[in-house]
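Title: [Solved] IS66 Orf2 like protein 3D structure

Original question kept below for reference.
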Amino acid sequence: MKVFVDVPKVFLHRDFVDFRKSINGLVGIVEYELARDAYSGALFVFCNKAKDKLKILYWDKTGFALWSKRLEKQKFKWPSKISTQEFTLSSEQLQWLLSGYDVLGHEQLHYQSQI
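Solution (posted by the thread starter after getting help):
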């Protein structure tokens, strides 16, 4: 099931978030930590420390909406060991994340020949 269609941008916040935060707290993270415009219509994706819950915040031109998903047995594949604070995802990558796939894949390796 495709939940979000024709999304302008999707930003994934790398750090875990206290899920007692609701719309106002998440808007604060978007504007102060990520330095993004929360009113842009982009989706902002957050995860809890247990990696079993996601929240997606977005502005729909009349107000903020907050979508959430809780997994019953599994965990989301969350990129917690990568150095950047946020990631831009495509709509397809968002669907993969919601379906349980690792959207960022493996870390790139940099080797140099000794020849």
